Structures are given as structure tokens and as C-alpha cells.
Amino acid sequence: MLQFICCTLFYCILVTLHQHNLQILSVQPLLVILLFSGHAGDPVCVTMGDTVNTVYKNANEPIEARVKDLLSRMTLKEKLGQMTQIERTVATPDLIKDLCIGKFKYICTLNFYFVLGPKTIEPHLLAGSVLSGPESKPNENSNATSADWADMIDGLQKGALESRLGIPIFYGSDAVHGNNNVYGTTIFPHNVGLGATSDPDLLERIGAATALETRASGVQYALAPCIAVCRDPRWGRCYESYSEDTQLVRKMTSLITGLQGKPPVNLPNGYPYVAGRNNVMACAKHYVGDGGTDKGKSEGNTIISYDELENIHMLPYLDCIAKGVCTVMASYSSWNGDKMHTNRYLLTDILKEKLGFKGMVITDWEGLDSLYEPYGSNYRTAVSLGINAGIDMVMVPIRYQLFLEDLTYLVESGEVSMARIDDAVERILRVKFAAGLFEHPMADRFLLNIVGSKAHREIAREAVRKSLVLLKNGKDPHKPFLPLNRNVKKILVAGKHADDLGYQCGGWTSTKAGASGRITIGTTILDAVKETIGDTSEVVYEKNPTTKTLSKHVFAYAIVVVGEAPYAESRGDNSELIIPSKGDVLLKLVAQQIPTLAILISGRPLVLEPSVLETLDALIAAWLPGTEGNGITDVIFGDHEFHGRLPVSWFKSVDQLPMDSRKDSYDPLFPFGYGLKSNV
């Protein structure tokens, strides 16, 4: 009887607080949960929840109603948890649900739950999202399959669903040219090669295939596409950019439609959209101006006027927003000295208010740690500046305890307002509801059979052949060297890149920086040549042929493949841009003795000395083609015509950089848009 009287009195107090818009945890007037300890003098904890009319769990309710309902039920801790993205190496199902008071035995009387017995554990969701860093894989297994990934992610998701409110996480991965972190998936050409295709329909199909293979692994969030406009190939992320030309980059944003699905015509501008469980949330990055930094320095400073920033670098974001992109990632770079992660004018005033973006803004990896020197210092100040500037979710990803402690302090001290927190969480929840995560939180195992499928590899093969740019075809323009005769007696294939799948795929494949060798399933250029030539033809492969080797055989022609080793981000910053490993020496050695087709594997234009170029019979820019080397032989042996056009200007010397095709001084080796045909 005493318990009933106490419960009734407390219920009346809470209803009064609720009527005055005061909140204790999640206050709903219909139901009260009182937690009584089994021991006199122990503290009492109170939570409330309306389980009769749970709007946010009803898929038939409008998204905004679901967001409002769920937000009203959330504690401060749960809200801050939603703003936190952590790395899988620190994530466990138990961590996903914070260890707080809960899991009780209930006796239902009237509209009240009386809770009897000692305190146990109630899970409160700690993280809104989990991601894998580039080298982070299930069980640290580099050959982990999509099924292995799905098992791991579903385990974490189970922890999220067991939390007090059952808010699902979304799992993020750098699926930037296919689901490239996972063994056996289809790896498409990097963006610079796709820019050479100038084919938005192809990009949409690539996006759709990537979405299917990504969802098969349990990942719901692809950290792609990079829509940087690369103005200087010295930048280590040049290959992540479709082009130096803003309008071409805008066309290539069709990848988002493939990843997320085609939005309905009546979708409000700026509203996030995901068509269904065969699609993923996309991420337009890196906002804004990352491709325009001084001297192409990674994470550097873009020194231009606002009008130039808008007309060169910001326009592709308008297209992404119109396509319903779910998230935008802030750039490590600065604009005229101001860090993008703390730039309220660009993140809030422009992106959210002027452009009307209703999705979620996320930091880059440890984006807040990078704001001060030494790295990671003044963290509380960095958190305050970032959140107040308009960051909604922080890719912490390791020091989550410190982040949550500092953000809690900032809110409780008033330095970060509850209105800013609620805005951030509303955006995160809006994206989760739009993505259908509450209805379909787990991996769809029926998609596993499509991973690395023939249909997807055919799309990638098409992308490879359309990306190839023919820069030279014959020493005499009236006597084209290509297409090659596949029925000659003996062919030399030379260069490490001819038989190295890792080099062929480039960075962001299996690991961040990429690797050498058979890092996944695919076809090297050498494999493809052997598959294509006639039955009576012989292929001799020499990684580094010598004059003595060349003199031993009579070759009809040589295919020499040289280029860059894989790299990513600042590791790729390069002020010289020469062909590595004395590739130019190899080209001259072979071409001086044998008619030679040179294939350049690179993420950007490289120096081509006149003495090298004059020696070659034919030259192809193949970019970073991915796993489907057959796309190259499709074209060089004449089954398909060359299609690609240069998405970037090919300089004569690095002294000309950065180049601008609009200036009178523009004098490239090969201009933007250049590309020959072989007239097959």
C-alpha cells in the first residue's frame, strides 16, 4: 500500500513537471516507472516511457513526427551518444549500450509499473554510429568476407537494439570505389578514371552495384563520393576527384542516385533520402574547397574569394543536396586560414540555411583532434567550436569517453546550447528514419550472392574501357599503332604494374594506402592479355627486362605498364610527379628496341619527358582501373573503341602548376578533354 501511495504522489509530481515543459529523463504522462531498491537507503532512479503509443516505432507515421517523438523521450546522455561515431576496435555490443541503471522486474498495476527487486543494468545507447578505419576488419582478418562483416556488424546492431529506446546504429565504411575494404568485392576505377568516362548513367549503375555489395556486408553508410574539384595534381587525393572541371564533377554526382536510389519528385529540397534496404546512405565530401589548397597540400589552405569558392568548389554540393544526399563531411582543409571543421558561416549559414541541407554534417576522422597543435590538444575547446559551428556527428573515433565527458560539460555549462544538441540529434534521427534503419536494421543475407558477381564485374569492366584515354597512337599520325594484332607470334609484357592487382587498384583498397600483390580477387593486365591473345601467340613477361633479355627474343611488340605505387591522402602529396621506380627509363629501354605501347597506371598526370614520349609508339592513361583488367584488353586489341577524355590538364612540367584552362598562359602537354580514337 505504501508503494502505491508513493508511486501515485510521484506520478502527480512528474505530470506537473511535464505540463510545465520540464523533463526528467524521458517524461510521458501516461506511464511511470519507479525503481525501488531492495535495500533501505539505496538511491531511487526514475524513468518514464509511453509504450502504448510509440510514434517513433510506427513506420506509417511521418518521419518528422517520429523524430519529434523519439527526441522527446531521450536523455541528454542518449542524445550525446547519437552524436558519437566510434571505431569498431573500441566497439562491442556491451559498449554500444552504455552500462546504466535498468533491466528490472515489473508488476503492472493500473497505469503504473512498480519495480521490485535490486538494481540491475539498463542499457542506454552510447554511440549513434560505428565505422571501420581502413585497416580495421572483422577479427583483424584481411581476407574477411562480406558474410564475416555482416556477422560482426549485426552483433553490434543487436547491442544497439537492446538499448532502452532501441535506436539502431548505422555502420560506416570508406566504400569509395566499390566496397573496397572487403575481400572479393568488385573494385571499380577510382574517381579520376570515372571522370574520364564523362558518363553519368554509368556512374549511377556503379553506385547501385556498390550499394548492393556494401549492404551485403551489413554496412549501411558509404563514405562516398568525394566531389572535390582538384585544381592541382600535386594533391595526394587527386585520384579521388572526378575532374578539375566543376561542371564535369557536377555530372558525376549521379553516383549518389545509384547509392541511395532515385528520390521522388516531391521530395523537399535538402531532405535526406534512401530508397530501400538495397541502398546505402551516401556522404558528399569534403566540404568545401579541399581540391583547391595552395600547392595541392593535403589538409592545406584554400586561398580564394567566396565567389570563387562557391562557383568552383561548392556547386557540386547543390546537386548532391538536390539528390537527397544524407550526409556531408567537413574537410580537414581551411578556407583563407579558417578551419572548415569550425567554420560556422560555411557549415551552418551556407550549407544548412542557404542551401537548405536537412541531413547530417559529420567530421572527418579525428577531425576535431586535428584542430590544434600538438595533435589532440585543447580538445574541449575543439569540441565546443566544432559543435557550435554546425557539426552534428563526430567521427571521434577512439577517445569517445573524453568526447562525451567534454561535450556533457559544455552542455551543462551552457557553452553548447540544448537547442544546438537537439538540432544535431534531429538531423541524425532524420537520416536514420529516412534510411529505414528502424524497420531493417540487420544485414540482408540474400545479397551475399551478388558480391563480386559477373554482372557487377561487367559494369566495372565497362568503366575501365570507357576510362582509358589514348594520348598517342603511332609515331606517324597516318599509321596508327593501335589496335594491336592479337595473333602475332610473340609479345613482351613488362613492368611491375602489369601483374600487380594492388597497384592496379590503388589506394583505399583493402587498406588506406593500398598494397601490392593479389590483395583481392581480380584480373591483372597480364592475366587479361593472356586471355585475349590468339592460340598460337606467346606472352613473355619480364618485370624488369634488360638489354640482354630483349635480345634473346623476336617480339612483334611490347606492352609496358608503369606508374605510381598506391598511396592515400598526405602520403600522396608530391611536388615532383615523375614516374616512380625509373619507369621512364624502362619505357625508353624497351621502346628503343621494340615497338611499344605504354600504359600508365596513376592517379593523376605525371611528367612525360619529350625523349620518352617521342620513343613510344602509343600511350594510354589508364588511371587506377580496379580489379577488371580485361577492360584494358577490350580496347587495345580493338573489340571496343577508345572513349575516355582527360578530366584534368596534362602539364608539361610541374613549374606550370596549378594550371587554369581559362587563362591565356594555359599551355599543357595535353589539354583538358583531350583523347584520341583508334578508329577500330
Main attributes of the structure:
680 residues; alpha/beta; TIM Barrel; Rossmann fold; six-stranded mixed beta sheet; five-stranded parallel beta sheet; 21 helices; 23 strands; 32% helix
Layout of helices and strands:
Elements: H1 2-19, E1 32-35, E2 45-47, H2 63-73, H3 76-82, E3 84-87, H4 93-96, E4 97-102, E5 105-109, E6 112-116, E7 120-125, E8 129-131, H5 146-161, E9 170-173, H6 191-197, H7 200-216, E10 221-222, H8 246-252, H9 254-260, E11 283-287, E12 301-302, H10 306-322, E13 327-330, E14 334-335, E15 338-339, H11 344-354, E16 360-362, H12 379-389, E17 394-395, H13 400-412, H14 418-434, H15 454-467, E18 469-473, E19 490-494, H16 501-505, H17 525-532, E20 538-542, H18 547-551, E21 557-563, H19 583-591, E22 596-601, H20 610-615, E23 618-623, H21 630-636
Parallel strand pairs: 1-6, 3-8, 3-17, 8-9, 9-10, 11-13, 12-14, 13-16, 19-20, 19-21, 21-22, 22-23
Antiparallel strand pairs: 1-2, 4-7, 5-6, 14-15, 18-23
Overall description:
With 680 residues, this protein is α/β, with parallel strands linked by helices. It folds into two domains: 61-99 and 122-447, TIM Barrel; 468-670, Rossmann fold (3-Layer(aba) Sandwich), CATH 3.40.50. 32% of the residues lie in helices and 14% in strands. The protein contains 21 helices and 23 strands. The strands form six sheets. Strands 18-23-22-21-19-20 form a six-stranded mixed sheet, sandwiched between helices. A five-stranded parallel sheet has the order 10-9-8-3-17. A four-stranded mixed sheet has the order 2-1-6-5, with helices on one face. α6 crosses α15 (454-467). It is globular and about 80 Å long. The protein starts with a helix and ends in a 44-residue tail after the last helix. Mean pLDDT is 90; it is low at 14-52 and 99-122.
